[in-house]
Here is the input.
Amino acid sequence: MSDHLELKQEGRDWLLANPAQVENIRSEQFDTGWWSEKKRLIGGAPGRGTSVFLDAGDREWVLRPYLRGGLFARVVHEHYLWLGAENSRPFRELRLLNLLWNAGLPVAEPVAARAQRRGLAYRADLITVRIPGGRPLADVLEKTPLPADCWRDLGAMIARFHREGVYHHDLNGRNILLDDGGSFWLIDFDRCGIRKPGRWCQANLQRLKRSMDKFSARMTGFHFLASDWQALLTGYRAFED
Here is the structure.
């Protein structure tokens, strides 16, 4: 584990990297074309940012560009107002991930972040280690139900983050992964942070509940019952106690 992240600049590109994962990161390593030329572009994952999987040798990485959602995306799809490298979204997310990873929380290990300044704006990318066998909870439930003990484990995991004051801006069925060993992971910490535990914890849970209800409404045969949610709450409360 390393608490230290290395900062460097290449022209108008600012880079922040975890030396435990990569030495001398270069801006070109954030471009899918560079990986494709080396035949080390593995595939992609669904989502607004269209993340791609990379062959990094002894492990795989996930490269995720930052793309806007909502109506504003029609105007500026991938650009944000430049307020300095340390205030950029990928730098903030990488530093938060590094903090959580070193605290032993189930998050993807951080690799590197890039902020490319273009005048008054910037575009951004983030690289993390791919969680082996990790599948979005929504994809799992589309095919099979989970036993009550899994739901209790999920509730305990969320409670663990909340106890540490970790606020997740978009807790939903796609940002929770379940690996082959039955362990849960939390991903996508853009616009997240550390807060004093309070009312937001329950609001966070309700956000997840709304997400699961939406999946149930959209997908025929989606495996999510009221008893599943109650099992999750049981695990959450047991961890709190």
